[in-house]
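Quick one, tokens below. Sequence please?
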């Protein structure tokens, strides 16, 4: 039994390697097809995972079961020019949503715009948001230092500000800004906190280039004393399943408060997570399509191996005849040719891993996505290459074992 095992190992590996080494150029070109197929499969899986991870990160950044109520209805063809200057949402609407829609966990008023701030040794043009203390929970944002403003700050319209990381860096550099005074549109505000960095959105917008103030302060001191409405109302539903019924309940309440009967709504409720989830699904579908195409490349490499092995059988007819004439079994001949096909595909699969690393680096540089090669994808792709080798080599090996020794020895 041990002798037979050693014989099989010799036939499958040693003799197969010797046969492939006699035709190095042909073996290299044959394995090249499998190598490219394996590298393509690994790269496609890595890019698909990176795209999905990026969309998932964008979904997490978006907010906690986020519901976004904008002032103003959609214009013709669904295009809006923005809510600024539209006086259809009021603080009373936000208070009513808190009070009468239990499916909404949190509600924050929102007033926003662009301001120039001066602090430390510099000045900076940035966007401000006037919000309520619930804003942090809705947007899943945390404090890096200091504190966020309180309900008392909102009630008293206190001139306090919380800085995004980009604004902090531009104005104060390495200096701790907590307790410092900066000027927002020539009015003095005290810095009470700094937000943790969030980075850029998928659209390239810097989320940290912002500052937050109490919404009542933004209305009275940044927008002006006659400014009494809101640009948006930002909400968080109690659960993902509650988002849709919460939107319906909020819309019904706002229609009642605004006395809308049959005409177009003077507000617009958005659910941005639907867009991102659709993007995630689309990226997964595209990844599956690309994986199918990559698998075709791997299959093409297998067909190349089959063709080369069939040609090898024809070229080595005399050799096969001699082996069979001196006592070699049909099984041992099948094993040798099958070993050649498997070793070709295995070598191509292993060489496909460094090629996939090069391809992933190129994609990383091109798209700016952090591409990470999956160990599971690499091992699966190499395993598939071995399976391709077995399938591609099965018929040529069977054909070689079926040759008649006398006929084979007569053939030149």
């Amino acid at each position: 039994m041990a002798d037979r095992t050693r014989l099989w190992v010799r036939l499958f590996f040693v003799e197969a390697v010797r046969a492939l080494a006699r035709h190095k150029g042909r073996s290299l070109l044959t394995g090249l097809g499998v190598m490219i197929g394996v590298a393509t499969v690994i790269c496609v899986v890595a890019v698909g995972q990176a795209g999905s991870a990026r969309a998932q990160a964008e979904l997490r950044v978006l907010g906690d079961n986020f519901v976004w109520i904008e002032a103003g209805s959609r214009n013709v063809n669904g295009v809006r020019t923005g809510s600024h200057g539209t006086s259809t949402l009021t603080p009373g609407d936000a208070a009513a949503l808190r009070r009468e829609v239990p499916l909404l966990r949190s509600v924050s008023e929102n007033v926003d715009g662009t301001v120039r701030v001066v602090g430390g040794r510099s000045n900076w043009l940035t966007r401000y948001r006037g919000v309520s203390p619930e804003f942090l929970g809705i947007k899943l944002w945390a404090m890096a230092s200091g504190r966020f403003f309180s309900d008392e700050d909102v009630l008293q319209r206190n001139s306090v500000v919380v800085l995004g990381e980009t604004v902090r860096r531009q104005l104060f550099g390495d200096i701790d800004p907590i307790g410092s005074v900066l000027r927002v549109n020539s009015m003095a505000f005290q810095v009470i906190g700094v937000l943790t960095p969030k980075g850029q959105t998928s659209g390239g917008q810097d989320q940290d280039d912002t500052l937050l103030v109490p919404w009542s302060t933004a209305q009275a001191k940044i927008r002006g004393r006659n400014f009494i409405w809101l640009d948006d109302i930002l909400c968080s539903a109690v659960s993902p399943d509650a988002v849709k019924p919460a939107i319906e309940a909020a819309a019904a309440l706002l229609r009642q408060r605004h006395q809308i009967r049959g005409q177009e709504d003077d507000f617009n409720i958005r659910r941005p997570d639907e867009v991102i989830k659709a993007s995630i699904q689309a990226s997964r579908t595209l990844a599956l399509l690309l994986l199918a195409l990559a698998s075709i490349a791997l299959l093409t490499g297998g067909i190349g191996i089959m063709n080369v092995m069939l040609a090898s059988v024809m070229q080595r007819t005399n050799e096969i005849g001699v082996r069979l004439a001196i006592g070699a079994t049909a099984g041992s001949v099948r094993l040798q040719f099958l070993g050649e096909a498997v070793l070709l595909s295995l070598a191509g699969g292993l060489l496909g891993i460094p090629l996939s690393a090069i391809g992933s680096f190129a994609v990383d540089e091109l798209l700016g996505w952090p591409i990470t090669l999956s160990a599971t994808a690499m091992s699966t792709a190499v395993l598939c290459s071995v399976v391709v080798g077995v399938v591609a080599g099965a018929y040529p090996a069977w054909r070689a074992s079926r040759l008649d020794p006398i006929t084979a020895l007569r053939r030149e």
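The radius of gyration is 34 Å. Confidence is low (pLDDT under 50) at residues 75-83.
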